UniProtKB/TrEMBL annotation:
GO BP of this protein: response to stress
Protein name from the UniProt record: MarR family transcriptional regulator
PANTHER family: MARR FAMILY REGULATORY PROTEIN, TRANSCRIPTIONAL REGULATOR, MARR FAMILY
UniProt cross-references to InterPro entries, sorted A to Z: HTH_MarR-typ (IPR000835), MarR/SlyA-like (IPR039422), Tscrpt_reg_TrmB_N (IPR002831), WH-like_DNA-bd_sf (IPR036388), WH_DNA-bd_sf (IPR036390)
Gene Ontology MF term list: DNA-binding transcription factor activity
HTH marR-type domain location: 32-132
């Protein structure tokens, strides 16, 4: 692999293929969520995190960390989801309320999760196959770890 500041032709081709794959897959999955279940990708992400959390609740800062969303984006989106009855805010011992998945929110995630998982399997898991999927998982973990080290040491964006 080239070590200069510019990507070589092959590196550029792979990078652009990756970006196109990621956008295409994400857009396609989101269209199905929206059309079939009335959920956005953001709704789905919040509901997944809450449904997997102990007692279906998380503090807002935990949810922000899990989604990597900024505070204002999370706040605005939670307000919209609360109006639709998917989540509610509950006072707790902390200064800030906990975000709780409602019965309606739980029903929504249970309704869409099987179809979503089937599409992820069809368009991603089965395309890669077991061996390439394992290699991709390892590579993805390494990328995330590398970014984490960068943020912990000399990244001016994380203050």
């Amino acid at each position: 692999m080239s070590r200069g500041p510019w990507l070589g032709d092959g590196e550029q081709k792979v990078w652009r293929s990756y970006l196109l794959m990621q956008r295409t897959l994400e857009t396609h999955l989101e269209r199905h969520l929206q059309r079939e279940f009335g959920l956005s990708k953001s709704d789905f992400e919040i509901l997944v995190n809450l449904s997997e959390a102990e007692h279906g609740r998380m503090r807002a800062f935990e949810l922000s960390r899990a989604t990597q969303w900024e505070k204002s984006r999370l706040s605005h989106h939670l307000t919209r989801m609360e109006k639709r009855g998917l989540v509610r805010k509950e006072a707790c011992e902390s200064r800030y309320p906990e975000i709780v998945i409602t019965e309606e929110g739980l029903a929504a995630i249970k309704a869409c999760a099987p179809a979503h998982a089937a599409r992820v399997r069809e368009f991603f898991v089965d395309v890669f196959g077991a061996e390439r999927l394992a290699m991709l998982g390892e590579a993805a973990d390494e990328v995330v770890e590398t970014i984490g080290r960068h943020c912990d040491t000399d990244c001016p964006l994380t203050s």
